[in-house]
Write a structure and sequence with these properties.
The complex is a heterodimer. Chain A is α/β, with parallel strands linked by helices. Chain A has two domains: about 130 residues, Glutathione S-transferase Yfyf (Class Pi), Chain A, domain 2; about 190 residues, Rossmann fold (3-Layer(aba) Sandwich). In chain A, helix 14 links the parallel strand 7 and strand 8. In chain A, helix 6 packs across helix 7. The radius of gyration of chain A is 20 Å and the shape is globular. Chain B is an alpha/beta fold. Chain B folds into two domains: about 170 residues, FAD/NAD(P)-binding domain; about 160 residues, 3-Layer(bba) Sandwich (FAD/NAD(P)-binding domain), CATH 3.50.50. In chain B, helix 1 crosses helix 7. The chains are: A alpha/beta, B alpha/beta.
Chain lengths: ~350, ~350
C-alpha cells in the first residue's frame, strides 16, 4: 500500500469545520445503543476543550431512517429538517453538529437539494411557516461530531493520559476503522478524506499514537444497511455483511475497530456474538472478539475517563484486553454498577465467545 | 517568400501534416511542449492491430519531415491571437512567431487513473495503467508484480475514464478496447501460463482486423473476457488485488484476486486546449475536445479562418485516422493559403 498516494488524496478532501458555537443534534439510534458516547462527546467538547455547544430539548428525529426506508416522503423530511434549523436559529447558534451519520448525510442532502432547487427551499419554508409559524436560517457550517473530534484530535492528544500503545511491550496498537456510509459516500467532498479512503478516523488513531491497518473489505457495509436489518427477513444479509468484514480484517490482528456511525459499532459488536453462537467462530485473541469502539469512547479512554463511565460494559465484545494493552486501570467489580450506584446484574455468558 | 504555417503539437498529426505541407512548398514551424517530437508514440512499444513496433511509424514520420522544418521543443505558447490574415504567437522561450495559418494538433492526454479512486491507482502497488504496461514492454523489462513475482493472474479493466459519468467523461475513447485485447495477447506471449481476464462493458471492435485479434486472443491465447464493470479494488495482505465486479452475462456479482491489475485509461483533451480555445476563440464540445466547423465535411476546419485541426484534439482517434486527417488538414491549409 502506497501511503503517499492516500496522502495526496486526503489533501484533496479537506473541509471547513467550525471552531466553536455548535448546535448539537442527537442520534435516535445512539441514544439507545451507546448513550454514554454522546454524553462523553459533550463532556470532551465543554469540559476538556472549553467550547460552546448547545442542544435544544425540543429537537426531534431528522426522520432519516424513515426517509431511507421509503416510509417518509422527502418533502416531509425536508420540513422536519427545516424545523431543526429553526430551533438552531432561535437558539442563536450558527454551526450544526449532528451526532448521527445518517442525519449528517441527510442535512447535507437537503441543503444540496435547496442549492440546486431554490423553489423547493421556498416551498419547504412555506410548509414550516404554516405548520409551526417558524422561520430559519441555514447553518453556516455543518460538521459531523466525528469531524469536530478530528479537528480537535491534537488538543485531545495533548491532554492524553493513555496512548494507543501497548504499555508493556511499547508496540503501537493497530486499529481498523469503519466509516458510516452516509458520512461521505453520498457527498465525498463533505467527508474528511473523501469516500474511498476517508481520513477522519485514521487521523484520530494516528494522533493518539496508534496505527491503522487497511483491510480488503473496509468499504463493505457493517451490516446495518437499513434494508438488510429493518426488514426481518433480510437479516441474514446483515450478519453476512459483518462476517465478511470480520474475515477480511482478522488476518491483520487488529487490537480494536473504530467507528463513527450509530449503527456500525452496534452491529460489528453484537454480530461477533451472533456469529460465535451460529458458527463457533471468533475473531479476536484467545477466543474473544475484536473490541469495537465509538470515536468518543476511544477519545474518552485516551483522556483517562473511567471505562464504565464511557459505557463500555454494555458492549457485547469485552473491551478489557484493549484496556489492559493501553495500561488503563479499571475496577472489575464496578463494571455492572449503574450511575445511580445500583447493581445492574451480570449478563449471561455466551457459549462460545469468551468474555471477561 | 513562401507562406508560413505554425503547427502546435509535434505528435503524429503535427508531423504528418508538416511533411505534406513542406512538400507543397510552405514554411513550417512546429512548437512542441515536450522535449521531443513524436508524441505518445515515444511511449508505445507495439501498435494494434498488427503489433508492429511503434518505432516504425515514428521513424516514418520523422523521415518524411523536411530538413528545413523549424522544430522548437520544450516550448509552450504563452500567448496567441488571431489577426486579419495572420496568427501571432509568443513562445515560452521569448520568441514571437507570425504565421499565415495555424494547425492545432495538440492531441490528447491520458486520463488520470487516480481519479477513479476506488481502483487504487498509485495506492495499491499492483495496479498499473495501460500506459505503464506499454512502457514495461517498450523498455524490454520482464512483467513482474511489485513483489518481484511473475504474475499468475492479471485483470485488464476497460473503460477507465471513458463512458463514465462519475468522472465526467461520457464519451468513448475508441482505442482502449482494442488496446486491451492487444495487451492481453502480449501478456500471454510473454507469460503463457498467466491467466488474463478482460473486464469490459462492450467491446467496440470497429475497425479492420480488430475482430481478428479479438478472436485470436480467445482462441489462441485463451484470454477470458468477462462483461462487467469493476466496482472497486482492494489490496490483500500479500499485495495482490481483490476486485469486485459483476458478471453481467451471468447476472452475478463476483470477487477475484489478481496479481496485477491493468487499467485501460482513456483520452482526455490536452491541457493546452483551454488556453488555445481562449486565445484563438475556438469552440469545444461538452467533452472539452475542439469542435470542427462541420462534423461531417469540415472535420479539419475550425470556426476561425486560418485555424485548422488534425488528430485527437477533436476527439479520440486511431493513428491511422490521425494520419489521414493530418493529410486532409494539410490540403485544406494549402487551399486556404492559395485563396488568400
Amino acid at each position: 500500500m502506497l501511503q503517499e498516494g492516500k496522502q495526496a488524496l486526503w489533501k484533496e478532501y479537506q473541509k471547513e469545520i467550525a471552531d466553536n458555537r455548535y448546535f448539537y443534534v442527537r442520534s435516535c439510534v445512539r441514544q439507545n445503543f451507546f448513550p454514554a458516547s454522546e454524553a462523553t462527546f459533550l463532556k470532551i467538547i465543554t469540559e476538556e476543550l472549553g467550547k460552546d455547544i448547545y442542544e435544544h430539548p425540543s429537537h426531534t428525529s431528522c426522520s432519516g431512517i424513515g426517509y431511507h426506508t421509503d416510509v417518509i416522503p422527502f418533502e416531509t423530511t425536508m420540513t422536519m429538517v427545516a424545523r431543526q434549523f429553526a430551533l438552531m436559529t432561535e437558539a442563536g447558534y450558527p454551526n450544526l453538529v449532528p451526532s448521527c451519520i445518517t442525519s449528517f448525510g441527510l442535512y447535507t442532502e437537503v441543503l444540496d437539494t435547496w442549492h440546486h432547487f431554490p423553489e423547493v427551499e421556498a416551498r419547504v419554508r412555506e410548509h414550516l411557516r404554516k405548520a409551526t409559524g417558524r422561520e430559519f436560517e441555514k447553518p453556516a457550517n455543518i460538521a459531523h461530531a466525528s469531524d469536530i473530534i478530528f479537528k480537535l484530535r491534537n488538543e485531545i492528544a495533548a491532554k492524553a493520559k493513555h496512548k494507543l500503545v501497548n504499555h508493556i511491550t511499547g508496540k503501537t496498537l493497530r486499529g481498523v476503522e469503519h466509516i458510516g456510509c452516509h458520512y461521505s459516500k453520498m457527498f465525498p467532498q463533505k467527508g474528511i478524506g473523501g469516500a474511498e479512503y476517508p481520513y477522519v478516523l485514521i487521523g484520530m488513531i494516528e494522533a493518539w499514537g496508534g496505527e491503522v491497518v487497511d483491510y480488503p473489505e473496509r468499504r463493505h457495509c457493517c451490516g446495518f444497511g437499513f434494508r438488510q436489518y429493518l426488514v426481518k427477513a433480510n437479516r441474514g444479509y446483515s450478519v453476512a455483511s459483518s462476517k465478511k468484514k470480520f474475515e477480511s480484517m482478522e488476518p491483520y490482528k487488529p487490537d480494536f475497530i473504530l467507528t463513527n456511525c450509530p449503527g456500525c459499532p452496534y452491529f460489528l459488536d453484537r454480530w461477533q456474538y451472533a456469529i460465535a453462537e451460529m458458527e463457533g467462530t471468533t475473531y479476536g485473541e484467545n477466543g474473544m472478539g475484536i473490541p469495537v469502539l465509538t470515536y468518543e469512547e476511544l477519545a474518552g479512554l485516551v483522556l483517562g475517563y473511567d471505562p464504565w463511565d464511557l459505557g463500555l460494559q454494555v458492549h457485547q465484545v469485552s473491551v478489557e484486553p484493549l484496556l489492559d494493552k493501553m495500561g488503563i486501570s479499571y475496577n472489575p467489580s464496578s463494571k455492572y454498577v449503574g450511575k445511580n450506584g445500583k447493581f445492574l446484574g451480570v449478563p449471561f455468558k455466551p457459549n462460545t465467545l469468551k468474555v471477561c | 517568400m513562401s507562406k508560413t504555417v505554425l503547427i502546435i503539437g509535434g505528435g503524429v498529426a503535427g508531423l504528418e501534416a508538416s511533411g505534406v505541407l513542406s512538400k507543397l512548398g510552405y514554411t513550417i514551424t512546429i512548437v512542441e511542449a515536450s522535449d521531443r517530437i513524436g508524441g505518445k508514440l515515444n511511449r508505445w512499444a507495439n501498435l494494434f492491430p498488427t503489433q508492429r513496433p511503434a518505432e516504425e511509424v515514428l521513424n516514418y514520420l520523422k523521415f518524411q519531415l523536411d530538413p528545413n522544418t523549424s522544430i522548437i521543443t520544450n516550448t509552450k505558447i504563452d500567448d496567441i491571437s488571431l489577426g486579419k490574415t495572420q496568427v501571432s504567437a509568443t513562445l515560452s522561450n521569448g520568441n514571437c512567431i507570425q504565421a499565415d495559418a495555424v494547425l492545432v494538433s495538440t492531441g490528447f492526454e491520458f486520463f488520470d487513473a487516480r481519479k477513479k479512486e476506488e481502483y487504487g491507482y498509485k495506492i495499491y502497488e499492483n495496479v498499473i495503467t495501460s500506459v505503464d504496461l506499454e512502457q514495461i514492454f517498450k523498455d524490454g523489462k520482464e512483467l513482474k508484480t511489485s513483489q518481484g513475482k511473475t504474475p499468475k493472474r492479471i485483470g485488464i479493466i476497460h473503460c477507465v475514464g471513458s463512458r463514465d459519468e462519475k468522472v465526467g467523461n461520457t464519451y468513448c475513447s475508441k482505442v482502449c478496447c482494442v488496446t486491451g485485447v492487444k495487451q492481453a495477447i502480449e501478456i500471454k506471449e510473454r507469460i503463457p501460463s498467466c491467466e488474463v481476464f478482460n473486464f469490459y462493458m462492450d467491446l467496440r471492435m470497429f475497425d479492420r482486423h480488430f475482430e481478428d485479434i479479438y478472436k485470436k486472443a480467445q482462441v489462441e491465447h485463451h484470454v477470458q473476457f468477462i462483461r462487467g464493470r469493476l466496482s472497486e479494488a482492494f489490496e490483500n495482505p500479500d499485495g495482490s488485488v481483490m476486485i469486485k465486479v459483476e458478471d453481467t452475462l451471468l447476472g452475478k456479482p463476483m470477487k477475484m484476486n489478481l496479481d496485477l491489475v491493468v487499467l485501460m485509461v482513456g483520452f482526455v483533451p490536452s491541457s493546452s486546449s483551454v488556453f488555445l480555445k481562449k486565445g484563438l476563440q475556438l469552440e469545444t464540445g461538452n467533452d472539452g475536445f475542439f469542435t470542427p466547423a462541420d462534423e461531417h465535411y469540415k472535420t479539419v476546419c475550425s470556426n476561425q479562418k486560418g485555424v485548422f485541426f488534425a488528430g485527437a484534439c477533436t476527439g479520440p482517434k486511431t493513428i491511422e485516422n490521425t494520419i489521414t486527417e493530418a493529410r486532409a488538414a494539410a490540403l485544406e491549409i494549402a487551399t486556404y493559403l492559395n485563396q488568400n
